[in-house]
Design goal:
single chain; 729 residues; mainly alpha; elongated
């Protein structure tokens, strides 16, 4: 085999080939002595007979793995490729035999592909000389293996020679091996290649596949469905498959006793639905939808994924969601959430659509979807995680789902996801946190464990007003859980919230007011922090500028929690009008606190002068005399007594009926009821204040004659004792 005359090399190759035919270990000695490398060099000879002899010997040697490895190392692919296109039939067949052996070895197959062997192999399908079934099968086998090694190169080779129509013809070949290889090649080479796909359609390949589905021959049906299951993955081919009448047969095969057939039918049908190849009318047809729902709970695992994909593709249509629900599809979808990644993704896509529909949101907890959905929040697949988060965010609006979602650990994961830079993810996380914390404040512990409160604080500085508003609301909900208050105080929450009181967005301001109020309500230290952050002034400004009663009530409550009785802070920020607004909007307890501050302020003549600048405000104070709260009545009486000392105020007080009210109260206070109690101003301090009012009017000549009706109760009070009252009397 060493350099010698070609006739001698040829003869040597023939002898060695004969030796290799015997079931002995001669091939092993040849392999160990490097015969493969020597023979490989002969392929470049100009002698066709030497090429044939060398190819024959190499084919025999390469039936053994060790020799195939040496052939790959020798670079035989480069020399072999031109010989596959040889005009000498014997050389071409011998080259094909060697290629068939080499294609079985991955590295050698890769080398052949790189050398361009797919093109001459594809061209052999068109050659008139390729008539032998054995040769055709060998060519198809080589192409199949090369396609496995590099699909793009194989597609290009078949496309360039226009071999698709010939492959389609071979699909119906009587030799089962040939038809299987041809079907496999059609299904792998046509999808993803526009020109090959067009040749498939134009050559009637889909019609042939449809006929195979109706043939009744399980092998033919299996081949056809195998091809369709791959072709249908491309939207263009999927539409063509439906147009060529494959749908009905595919549906029928979903119920076939052969499990493999059922699986391929399910995959094909699922792909057709996912690609949108079926019209809404077809999807809603009674012959289609029940199949899909049944496949969700099928024992055939391969059918579940495509069924979920099909349902996911149509779950965005309200009418189909209704139909799927009526067919009992939700429990089946919920069960698929815990399967493999692809199946769970399709299932969670569909579940997310149902969760977004208020008609079915309430049903999902009963269908068992909450636990699996919470689990998918931790999925490493971003698209799965995103769909699960969407579903959880919508489910968080369902009161019955709040508890189970918190118990499933959803808050922990959502708190971590809030650190995401994706605006859509942040929005869904904030929605979830608002609803879950609002329904279960104690679940804030789970959020604190993962630092979720820090992410919430970050959102307070978001450029999005909606994000700021939701973050503030979530913090407010957290503050109803006392352990969370300390964590929020340590994280410098109060200054951030106080800054938001100056936001130009009313929704942000309102939720900030809520958060500060909830924070200050729990602990005195928190209230002090809110005061130190300078929140009282902007809160007071908001109170004065707001025209909505509910908003004023909300702000008044927050101020009450913040100042904790020190209403002079509010007075310093907004004057008497701020206190009067609080009186109008606050609860009984707040009114009592504020009226006490008012009474104390009005004892100062300078403060009275400031209030008298707006005489209309006096009516609000007078109105408190009718409060059901005795403490508020007493404080109001003190305030009115102080006002009555001012001449300008007495006229307004008189017009408001204050004098008549005081006289009636004093008269009622002298009357003992059957139960032993007194009516009117029974409290001694209140009586003193009312007598002060009468005394101030008595000193005014304008009203002295009008006080005759007050003489009797005043005389009665002289005998009742009480030094301070007596002085004024």
């Amino acid at each position: 085999l060493n350099p010698s005359p070609e006739p001698l090399q040829e003869a040597t190759c023939l002898v060695l080939a004969n030796l290799c035919e015997d079931p002995t270990g001669d091939w092993k000695q040849l392999q160990q002595n490097g015969a493969v490398f020597s023979v490989a060099h002969m392929l470049g000879s100009a002698s066709a007979s030497l090429q044939e002899a060398a190819l024959t010997l190499l084919a025999m040697l390469c039936s053994h793995k060790e020799c195939r490895e040496q052939a790959a190392d020798s670079g035989v692919a480069t020399s072999l490729t031109p010989l596959l296109g040889s005009t000498k039939p014997d050389v071409q067949r011998a080259a094909l035999a060697l290629a068939q052996q080499l294609c079985a070895f991955g590295r050698a197959a890769d080398a052949l592909l790189e050398a361009g062997a797919a093109s001459p192999l594809a061209a052999m399908l068109l050659s008139p000389g390729t008539g032998s079934s054995e040769v055709v099968a060998a060519v198809l086998e080589c192409l199949s293996r090369l396609a496995d090694s590099g699909l793009t190169q194989a597609q290009r080779a078949v496309r360039n020679v226009g071999a698709v129509p010939h492959l389609i013809q071979l699909m119906s070949h009587q030799d089962g091996r040939i038809s299987r290889f041809a079907t496999s090649l059609v299904s792998s080479l046509c999808p993803g290649d526009v020109q090959n796909a067009e040749q498939l359609f134009e050559s009637g390949g889909l019609v042939l596949l449809s006929e195979q589905l109706d043939s009744g021959d399980e092998r033919a049906q299996l081949q056809a469905l195998s091809a369709l299951s791959q072709l249908s993955a491309e939207p263009v081919q999927a539409h063509a498959i439906v147009e060529n009448g494959c749908l009905t047969s595919t549906l029928q095969l979903l119920e076939h006793p052969n499990q493999e057939l059922r699986a391929y039918a399910a995959i094909t049908f699922g792909n057709l639905c996912s690609a949108g190849a079926l019209t809404p009318a077809q999807l809603q047809h009674p012959s289609v939808l029940p199949h899909l729902v049944a496949m969700l709970s099928s024992s055939n695992a391969l059918a579940k994924g495509p069924a979920a994909a099909a349902i996911a593709s149509m779950a965005n249509q309200p009418s189909l969601r209704q139909s799927l629900h009526e067919l009992g599809g939700l429990p089946g979808l919920a069960a698929l959430l815990e399967l493999d990644v692809e199946t769970s993704y399709h299932a969670v896509q569909a579940i997310a659509q149902f969760a977004a529909d208020e008609r079915f949101r309430q049903v999902l907890p009963e269908a068992g979807a909450i636990g699996p959905l919470a689990g998918l929040l931790s999925s490493p697949q971003p698209h799965v995680q995103h769909c699960a988060l969407s579903a959880v965010a919508n489910l968080s609006f369902v009161p019955s789902a709040v508890g189970p979602l918190c118990q499933s650990g959803a808050l922990t994961v959502v708190g971590q996801m809030l650190f995401s830079h994706d605006a859509a993810v942040q929005t869904m996380c904030l929605t979830t946190l608002c609803n879950l914390l609002g329904g279960n404040a104690a679940s804030a512990d789970a959020l604190l464990q993962v630092g979720g409160h820090v992410a919430l604080l970050t959102q307070l500085s978001s450029p999005s007003p909606d994000a700021q508003s939701q973050a503030a609301m979530s913090i407010g909900h957290m503050c109803r859980h006392r352990p969370a208050v300390q964590a929020l105080l340590q994280a410098e929450t109060v200054p951030l919230l106080s800054h938001l009181l100056h936001s130009p967005h009313p929704a942000v301001q309102l939720q900030t007011v809520y958060a500060l109020g909830a924070l200050a309500a729990e602990e005195e230290a928190a209230a002090s922090a809110v005061q130190l952050a300078g929140a009282v002034a902007p809160l007071t400004t908001l109170l004065l500028s707001s025209g909505a009663v509910e908003v004023k009530q909300h702000i008044a409550l927050t101020l009450a929690h913040t100042v904790r009785g020190s209403w002079r802070l509010v007075f310093n920020a907004g004057g008497f009008q701020a206190l009067l607004d609080v009186l109008a909007a606050g609860s009984e307890a707040v009114q009592q606190d504020v009226s006490l501050t008012l009474a104390a302020l009005l004892e100062d003549v300078h403060q009275r002068g400031a209030l008298l600048a707006d005489l209309n405000s006096i009516s609000a104070i007078v109105g408190l005399l009718n409060s059901p709260n005795e403490g508020t009545q007493q404080n109001a009486a003190k305030a009115v007594a102080a006002l009555a000392e001012e001449e300008a105020a007495r006229e307004t007080l008189y017009r408001l009926g204050t004098l008549s009210h005081v006289t009636r109260s004093l008269a009622a206070a002298n009357t003992v009821r059957p139960d032993g109690t007194r009516g009117g101003a029974a409290n001694p301090d209140a009586r003193v204040s009312m007598v002060r009012v009468v005394a101030s009017f008595a000193a005014d000549a304008r009203y002295c004659n009008m006080l005759r009706i007050a003489i009797q109760p005043l005389v009665a009070m002289l005998s009742a004792g009480g030094a301070e009252a007596t002085v004024h009397l």
